Amino acid sequence: MRIAIIGSGSVGTALATSLLRAGHEVTFGVRAPDPAKPNEASIAHASAGAEVVILAIPFEAVAETVRAATGFEGKILIDATNPLGMVDGGLGLTMGFQTSGAERIAELAPRARVFKSFNQTGFENMADPAAYASQPVMFVAGDDPDGKATVLSLVADVGFEPVDAGGLRASRLLEPFGMLWIELVRKRKFRPFAFSLQYTA
Known about the structure:
The protein is α/β, with parallel strands linked by helices. The chain has one domain: NAD(P)-binding Rossmann-like Domain (Rossmann fold). It is built from seven helices and ten strands. It has helices spanning about 10-20, 45-50, 60-70, 100-110, 125, 145-160, 170-190; strands at about 1-5, 25-30, 40, 50-55, 75-80, 85, 90-95, 115, 135-140, 160-165. The strands form two sheets. The chain has an eight-stranded mixed β-sheet, sandwiched between helices. It has a two-stranded antiparallel sheet with strand order 6-7. A hairpin with a 2-residue loop joins strand 6 (about 85) and strand 7. The longest helix has 18 residues, at about 170-190. The chain is globular and about 45 Å long. The mean pLDDT is about 95.
């Protein structure tokens, strides 16, 4: 599958590593492509040639990115961002429970098929989920059934246990869940760790 990852930072690079390992084609969409890097293209060009687009950028850059890609029309758009900012003197979510970053993206890109995933753990886990004895879990939220099947499959290809969390509205829960991982890493020094599901026999 042809996948465009918007952003070539830690999260984007980690996802590219796992997706390439699974046999997918990956192009990075960036503001200023490096001519010496054949896997980089402009945001518009990378998105136009992709079947799936993953947003792996700071949330504050989302609106500009959506404009650069002319709204990601018709694309499966996976939102891997968290709307982070300084809240009450520390890093926190700038929205939540009444709406979500993913729902805001869906408003900005109404002709895209928007899903929330890859926001609930750190980049090192995205690069190598197989490092854990128990397979880490990754939830997916979105409203389009056919698109969701594709996203769940990609989550499995990366190496996570994919779980359907419901409609895009569930992003209001998944973004705070991602914040919990961040809090445990930053304040409790849990790294490396990942969430997983355990079932009774």
